[in-house]
Amino acid sequence: MSSSASYADCVTSLRSSLQFLESSVQTLDNGVSDFPRLVKVLKTVRHYELVSHTTLAAAEASLRDEISPYISLLLSRADAQTERQERRIETLKARAGLQQGRLARPAGQEAARSAAQKLKARKLHGEDKLRAKAVRQRRDALRYGVERLELEVLQKERELRKRLEI
């Protein structure tokens, strides 16, 4: 009986060993199931490792030389457009200031001027009335032109100052 107990212990030990072996095989199987994907990843990495550093540096320099002029051109265009927009903004601000100045004129001055013009117009008749109206319109147009030219001079001075600052 002792030999049968001894055989039973051996069988139990063998079964236990088989279970550990099956568990180890299962663990290994889970660990290597991703090998096909890993092989592809490692091949890609190996591919890049095969390219020498000098070849990569030469390719980078070539690409930089090819792209640099275009980048510089685009940056200069962007700078020019930005300057153009800034000048336009300054011009619009100047025009707005001019218009505000015209609107801010005291109403009394305008009313007095209109009244004086009406009195003058009453005294004039026919062709003289038309000439007076044309002269007033020409005077107003010239005044507006002078104001516009003054603003343009101011704008040009600003642009010149900006250019000299750079």
UniProtKB/TrEMBL annotation:
Pfam families cross-referenced by the UniProt entry: DASH_Spc19 (PF08287)
Record flagged with keyword Cytoplasm: yes
InterPro entries, per the entry: DASH_Spc19
Main localization of the protein described in the UniProt heading: nucleus
Keywords: Centromere, Chromosome, Cytoplasm, Cytoskeleton, Kinetochore, Nucleus
Localization of this protein: Chromosome, Centromere, Kinetochore; Cytoplasm, Cytoskeleton, Spindle; Nucleus
GO cellular component: DASH complex; spindle microtubule
A biological process from GO: attachment of spindle microtubules to kinetochore
Keyword flag Nucleus: yes
Matches recorded under PANTHER family: DASH COMPLEX SUBUNIT SPC19 (PTHR28262:SF1)
Family recorded in the similarity comment: Belongs to the DASH complex SPC19 family.
Protein name: DASH complex subunit SPC19
